[in-house]
Design brief:
70 residues, mainly alpha, 2 domains
Length: 70
């Protein structure tokens, strides 16, 4: 799924617009995706990365659920 990002430049203020663009790209995970595509990953490395991401996501969900029932 491709989602277009739009950053509005006001009064030729390019620096704040670039900063906003970089922040949005970081949030969307584009830098991580570009870095991942630079080199080939063996299937075993892909599997390990996917498992690590799942563990991180699970821990984050558990922390969130733990904080909800104060």
């Amino acid at each position: 799924m491709v989602v277009a990002t739009k950053i509005v430049v006001v009064d030729n203020q390019i620096e704040p617009a670039l900063k906003a663009l970089k922040k949005q790209m970081q949030k969307d995970g584009l830098f991580q995706e570009m870095k991942r595509r630079v080199a080939y990953d063996k299937p075993s490395v892909k599997r390990k990365r996917k498992q690590a991401a799942a563990r991180k996501k699970r821990r984050k969900a558990m922390r969130r659920a733990e904080g909800d029932h104060d």
